[in-house]
Automatic annotation (TrEMBL):
Regions crossing the membrane: 6-25, 37-61, 73-96, 117-136, 142-160, 172-188, 194-212, 224-249, 261-282, 324-344, 351-374, 394-412, 419-439
Keywords: Membrane, Transmembrane, Transmembrane helix
Keyword hit for Transmembrane helix: yes
The protein's name in its UniProt record: Glycosyltransferase RgtA/B/C/D-like domain-containing protein
Length: 583
């Protein structure tokens, strides 16, 4: 049988997606790389934009088909798998910690010290490895991006189709257009990212419950699983479901109790994150900060929504980069206004809950950034908690934003087909811009300071482990990546009881005295007194100082540390230098 035009278009899209997967598979590296885009050329973005445009044309102009769900899911996977392909050893820092915990659970059935956090992810990974016989690295590294690619476009489609009553083709367009949002949490697996995905799905599927009440138990299950994966990220999924339950079953409550419960829910939701953090600090015996510090930290709240410190206005930046980063600042604001307009156009009493969730999230971003202070973390990492919630701000309004976009596109359908194609083309370009912004960037406008775990980090960790095979107690002053490599290879193997509490033998977390000593040696001076202070604090036999070649001022740091080190070891032709100090 001859293929129909729609089949040919679908196969072309699949072919281009396969081409992109192949291109990504050839870019794998184990060296330090600040951005995946440093090894991926501009032609890849041209292919991505063309593929996105053809995909939008395919799902809009052709007859309904199950293949549309497949190609959309594959496009999501293409969008989210860049880091997984490029960074052969894994991307980021947190994933290595959680994989090490999962290794301990698989090996010993438990992780010590015991923690009530992250149980949902650890249980799921354990099942995938033991029952599904999936290798741990693959099961962990690909979990969130696979689940996102499978469930997010499907959820968007079904809510647009059955809650907002758009026809199938328009609902498919909406499920692609959600990629206008840079889902920076969904290309790497951590409990926070996993719970964030489940919270987004809860917000979306929760809308359907008002029309199909029998769907409510599924939404409850998703929200509880989100809470089990990460209580802080999943809390808003649970609060949303409680609000849905109050609305669905309001006839079962006396009116005063019903109103009182709503007041308590709203009041508690406004400050739920500070409450959880303060409860944790009290359990640790830490005194709580005064509410008065809020007024002195208002600028921190503003910074949460501003440019990161590594962004700079370079006069030599191209017009394309200037436009791209203007788009980055503009798109969240546009989506919020589109969301509020969509909410207004579809106003029902039930939809108040979605706007309330937006307000609750914004309130918690405010209090997390201005009131919560954790001594174990440096200022940059403390603000990250508020920044994580900031990325969730759009979630309650996201489907209403898509409603507004599709409403405009429905109006365009009455115009000439040229305008419809123009709209789809513009969406493709915007989605491509969001795709670029999803991952860390290093260019003339921004220079993301993070790097990846490299083969040199693993070799350095193994060298130190072999060098202490004689049983010498030791600590290691290194950056996060070398610490992550060691944890990945040897787990959470050593702790030391000191006057400043129980310390892990690598310089983590960022508030650790060992991390402070490392920063002093790197940024202040290569003074041996800092090493002597570590000896005095920990009582160990050896101290190792590890510096990577990509570090700013690497040559000066190496020269300074070489003056008083007992032994020096160079790893991977200078990629890392290790300095050993003996008591």
């Amino acid at each position: 049988m001859l293929l129909h035009v729609q089949d040919i278009l679908g196969l072309v899209v699949l072919g281009l997606q396969g081409l992109m997967f192949f291109a990504l598979s050839t870019k794998s590296t184990t060296i330090a790389l600040g951005s995946p885009w440093l090894v991926i050329g501009p032609r890849f973005f041209v292919v991505y934009a063309i593929t996105t445009c053809l995909l939008l044309c395919y799902v809009y102009f052709t007859k309904p088909s199950w293949l549309k769900h497949v190609v959309i899911g594959i496009h999501f996977l293409t969008t989210l798998s860049v880091a997984a392909f490029v960074y052969q050893l894994g991307f980021g820092y947190d994933p290595f910690l959680h994989r090490a915990a999962e290794k301990d659970i698989l090996a010993h059935g438990v992780i010590l010290p015991r923690t009530p956090f992250y149980i949902g992810q650890y249980v799921l990974i354990t099942i995938l490895v033991l029952v599904g016989h999936i290798p741990l690295f693959f099961a962990d590294a690909w979990l969130v991006m696979m689940l996102t690619s499978l469930f997010l476009p499907l959820c968007v489609f079904y809510v647009l189709r059955y809650h907002f009553s758009f026809e199938k083709n328009l609902s498919h367009v909406g499920s692609v257009c959600i990629l206008l949002v840079s889902f920076i949490a969904f290309f790497v697996t951590t409990p926070h990212n996993f719970a964030t995905l489940l919270t987004l799905l809860t917000f979306m599927l929760g809308l359907v419950c008002f029309s199909y009440r029998k769907f409510f138990p599924i939404v409850v299950g998703v929200s509880l699983f989100a809470f089990a994966v990460h209580p802080l990220s999943g809390m808003f999924a649970v609060l949303f479901v409680i609000g849905i339950a109050l609305w669905l079953y309001k006839d079962r409550f006396p009116k005063p109790i019903y109103k009182g419960t709503w007041v308590a829910l709203c009041a508690g939701s406004l400050v739920v994150m500070p409450f959880l953090f303060f409860s944790y600090l009290l359990l640790k015996g830490v005194s709580l900060p005064s509410p008065m510090i809020i007024f002195s930290r208002l600028s921190v709240f503003a910074d949460v929504f501003g440019r990161p410190y590594y962004y700079h206005n370079s006069p030599s930046a191209s017009f394309l980069l200037d436009t791209l980063y203007s788009y980055q600042m503009l798109i969240p604001v546009v989506l919020v206004f589109l969301g509020l307009y969509g909410w207004y156009r579809t106003f029902r009493k039930t939809t108040w809950l979605t706007v309330l969730m937006f307000i609750f999230l914004l309130s918690n971003v405010f209090f997390l950034s201005t009131w919560v202070v954790i001594s174990d973390l440096n200022t940059f990492e403390q603000v990250q908690y508020a920044q994580r919630l900031r990325h969730m701000l759009l979630f309650p309004l996201l489907l209403f934003s898509l409603y507004s976009v599709l409403l405009f596109f429905s109006w365009l359908r009455k115009k000439h087909v040229f305008f419809q194609l123009l709209f789809l083309g513009i969406m493709s370009v915007c989605i491509t811009g969001s795709f670029y912004l999803t991952y860390p960037q290093q260019n003339k406008k921004t220079h993301f300071p993070g790097y990846n775990v490299t083969s040199a980090d693993i070799e350095a960790a193994r060298y130190i482990e072999a060098d202490t095979a004689d049983g010498a107690s030791h600590v290691v002053l290194s950056n996060l990546l070398t610490a992550a490599a060691s944890i990945d290879q040897f787990g959470f193997s050593r702790y030391y009881d000191t006057d400043k509490g129980l310390l892990f033998y690598y310089a983590i977390p960022s508030g650790s005295p060992l991390a402070e000593a490392y920063r002093n040696l790197v940024y202040v001076a290569q003074d041996k007194q800092y090493i002597d202070d570590v000896f005095a604090l920990t009582g160990v036999d050896r101290v190792y100082f590890v510096i990577s070649s990509f570090w700013s001022g690497y040559a000066d740091i190496v020269a300074g540390m070489s003056k008083h080190a007992d032994e020096i070891q160079v790893i991977n032709n200078g990629a890392i230098t290790i300095f050993r100090y003996d008591r």
